[in-house]
Amino acid sequence: MKHLLGLLLLIMLGSSFAMAQNTTVLVTPNTNAPTNGVHLGHNVGQNMSSDSSVMIGSGAGQNSSFSRSSVYIGADAGKYSTFEKNVFIGRASGENNTADENTFMGFWAGRKNSGGRYNLIVGSQAGYYNTTGRQNVFLGHVTGYRNTIGEDNTFVGRSAGFDNTSGSGNTFIGTYAGGFCWTSCNIWTESTNVTGNYNVMIGYKAIPTVTGLTNAIAIGSNAKVSTSNSMVLGGTGQYGLNVGIGTQSPTAKLEIVSDAPNTSGLKLSNLTYSSPLSPISDKVLSVDNNGNVILVANPTNYLSGPVGIGVLPAQDYTLSVCGRARVSDLVADPKWCDYVFEKDYKLMPISQLEAYVKQNKHLPEIPTTKEVEENGVALGEMTSKLLLKVEELTLYMIQQEKRIKELEMQLVAKNGKVKLKK
Fold first, then answer.
1. Distance between CA atoms of 97 and 105, rounded to whole angstroms?
2. Which of 96, 125, 226, 326 could form a disulfide with 209 if both were Cys (CB 3.0 to 4.6 A apart)?
3. How many other C-beta atoms can be found within 10 angstroms of the C-beta atom of residue 243?
4. 214, β-bridge pairs
5. Sequence-distant (≥ 6) Cβ neighbours of residue 51 within 8 angstroms
6. Would the pTM of this model clear 0.85, i.e. be above it?
7. If DSSP states are collapsed to H, E and C, what string results for 173-213?
8. Which residues in 300-332 are b (16+ Cβ under 10 Å) and which e?
9. Is 377 helix (H, G, I), strand (E, B) or coil?
């Protein structure tokens, strides 16, 4: 009985099997089939006029007039395709193709492609609306779905580059990278890349938040970029990340560990010590003992801020120095004391000066030891006061000289025999 059933099956298969030259046709024979091909399925390659093609599936290559060296597998795969060297696998994949050397794999993959060449599209409905876009790589479910004329794009991951239509030279890697979410996701409503060029989006939901960007890069889960010629690493909030250079365990948004101690690892080639100063505020960035960058009061504000060398600036002082200072020249701008030699200057009588010194233990207008210990010495002011005392001393000496000569004259007048030394 088993042998009888097998014989009947062979007879049935033989009745629906025919040879057209060297082409194998199963189910619906095609007497117009060209040479060196394999056609399996209903209405496969009905209008085929070229050879060396493999067509499997109902309607595969049905109205394809010229598809030499092509492979169409799936219902309606390459149904209207007219060019050669294509591989279409999946229902209606490459159905309307009119270009050569494409590879489409997946349900409706590259279905609308017309003049686009050299594309690799893999995934259900991936590159569905691609028409003339060339040299694209779309890998994933509905990846590059709306792309029409965009070229040289690489989209990898479910829905990556879904809304890209004419943007070229983009690289989107990761689920929803480049922008898209099914309505049921109810996750975001940001704008997505539609016409931007030369952008890179890598990571889950890494997207541009506005359309038309150029040279924009977003890397990381939920990373979003909104300006051209920019790079964003990581998202915000719970999706934020730390970036480490020279370290495997960064603890800040950016942590740099240089190869040598006591060096920052940073270099600002266009901003050096010789760069001109610009107006700045009273706050600057510095580092603490752990290398953390902190905001501190500016000790070097050349407009109004005080300066501290080895010490924080003291209140009400422009310069505070802890340690020794050596200079080759020092210029002070105090009030000068030449007014001492004016005719109306009132010089303290020497007797009053003597009494003042005995009582106060210092010259008039000169600070006491206690004052110096508490406040230091104001160099410019002290220089002026010391000069004042030198000039007053000069006046005292002149007065003394006049008094001596006066006494000498009196002695000569009183006793002419007295011989005075010159």
1. 13
2. 226
3. 14
4. 197
5. 23, 34, 35, 36, 37, 68
6. no
7. ECCCCCCCCCHHHCCCCCCCCCCCECCEEECCCCEECCCCC
8. ebeeebbebeeeebeeeeeebeeeeeeeeeeee
9. coil
Kindly give the pairing relationship between strand 200-202 and strand 217-219: parallel
SS3 381: helix
Which tokens sit at 106? 């997946």
* Structure tokens, 317: 């002082």
CA dihedral 294, 297, 301, 306 (to 10 degrees): -140
For the ranges 88-97, 123-132, 333-342, 343-352, the lowest mean pLDDT is seen at 333-342
Query: Phi, psi at residue 183, to the nearest 5°?
Result: -55, -35
- Interval 121-178: pLDDT, tens: 999 999 999 999 999 999 999 999 999 999 999 999 999 999 888 889 999 998 888 8
129-138: long-range pairs with CB below 8 Å, 24+? 129/165
CA nearest 392: which of 347, 352, 353, 358?
Answer: 347
Q: Count other Cβ atoms within 10 Å, centred on residue 194.
A: 18
The span from the CA of 358 to the CA of 370, in Å, is 17
C-alpha closest to that of 35 among 78, 58, 68: 68
Chain-centroid distance of CA 408 in Å reads 92
| Single-letter amino acid, residue 313 | P
